[in-house]
Design brief:
The protein has 378 residues and is α/β, with parallel strands linked by helices. 30% of the residues lie in helices and 12% in strands. It is globular.
Length: 378
């Protein structure tokens, strides 16, 4: 299915990562005008999927919102919305969760940039750990920056599994609209409706190759045939095309030849394989702490690991429901809600980091669809 949504509604994606938020915005009907991140590797990957977006590798901690306006060549109030997920490691309950973590300052920076650029709305995403009492000062400081000019909603907690995504990933969204005398926007106006029927791991991985050999990390070795065996809202999103988004050659290869990228295998030792042979579905390996996915359940939250500046640790990957191997990048992408034509980095290490760091594009789409509908009615 092709969406032909010509729009004058534009957004900037701050801390854009690989583009989960950007994809959700594009599907909702927004034009992703600018994407910004300080990681040149994710910027290069983002470029492969968002051909008409202007990209900038910028460390946002080093610039003000007014400086950013000049760098992007835009004027105050020109942009409809700002979206983004500031780094969450300092707030995560999995990490050290230090209130003084310098990365936490980027949450405040997000609000400062919104204040200076003055979009009609903003949506920020982060981990639920940000709602812990020790981080109250950061949230209060952020709200104080915008509460004069923006109507700020209470934090919105969303579990992706309640919205048709095959993962139990929970995140908190911070939303605000520029104050207007014309209409007071209520929380009910922007809350997406939950989906009663969950998308299971089995449904999400259906049609992808099961037998994966460790043939090497190259792009070519990750190219595999896929079969589409069922219809439904999740399956339709796997092939759905959005104007000006996606690499034309990759999309053509998918639609004409049913070829997908990112199916590289991982080499495991004999000792690991022996342990995993005894592992039941839904059970966790006591040594590696990796869980074998339950085909009838949801995938646990996929994590990104750390960049080289923080040790370069690979995040733990779930084990395939029936095979004695960890999931491939393409399987991880499916579980996070990305379409089959979406490109990630050619290496598994960067691909898993990009997927684990991303906002689920399905959640982003549902939330931003409600927001764009509200904008059209104001």
């Amino acid at each position: 299915m092709i969406k032909n949504k010509e729009t004058t509604f534009t957004v900037i994606d701050l801390f854009c990562g690989v583009g989960g938020f950007s994809l959700g915005a594009a599907r909702a009907g927004f034009n992703v005008a600018h994407a910004i991140d300080n990681d040149p590797i994710v910027i290069e990957t983002h470029k492969k999927n968002f051909l008409s977006t202007k990209h900038n590798s910028i460390n946002l901690s080093d610039v003000t919102g007014k400086q950013l306006l000049k760098m992007l060549g835009i004027t105050t109030g020109e942009i409809t919305g700002i979206i983004g997920g500031p780094p969450c490691q300092g707030f995560s309950t999995i990490g050290k969760n230090h209130a003084e973590d310098k990365r936490n300052d980027l949450f405040i920076k997000f609000y400062q940039i919104v204040r200076d650029i003055k979009p009609k709305f903003f949506v920020g995403e982060n981990v639920p750990g940000l709602l812990r009492e020790k981080h109250n000062p950061a949230r209060l400081r952020a709200n104080k920056i915008l509460n004069k000019d923006y109507d700020l909603f209470p934090p919105i907690i969303i579990n992706a599994g309640d919205y048709g995504v095959p993962t139990s990933r929970t995140r908190v969204f911070f939303v605000g609209f520029r104050k207007s005398a014309e209409r007071k926007i209520a929380l009910i106006d922007i809350l997406p409706e939950k989906i009663n029927i969950k998308t299971t791991v089995s449904q999400a991985l259906k049609g992808l190759p099961i037998k994966i050999k460790h043939d090497g990390p190259s792009y070519e070795n990750g190219l595999r045939k896929v079969k589409y065996l069922s219809n439904g809202s999740f399956t339709s999103r796997l092939r759905e095309i959005i104007p000006n988004v996606g690499n034309p050659l990759v999309i053509k290869n998918l639609l004409k030849n049913n070829l997908v990228t990112g199916c590289q295998g991982t080499l495991h030792s004999d000792a690991v394989l022996k342990r995993w042979e005894e592992l039941a579905q839904g059970e966790t390996d006591k040594v590696s702490r990796a869980m074998r996915l339950d085909p009838k359940g949801l995938c646990p939250t996929l994590r990104a690991g750390t960049g080289k500046e923080h040790g370069g640790f690979q995040s733990l990957r779930p084990i395939h429901p029936t095979e004695n191997r960890v999931i491939t990048p393409r399987e991880a992408a499916r579980l996070q809600g990305f379409p089959d034509w979406f490109l990630f980095h050619s290496t598994k290490w960067h691909s898993f980091r990009q997927i684990g760091n991303s906002v689920s594009p399905i959640v982003a789409e549902l939330l931003l669809t409600k927001i764009i509908g509200t904008l059209k009615n104001t």
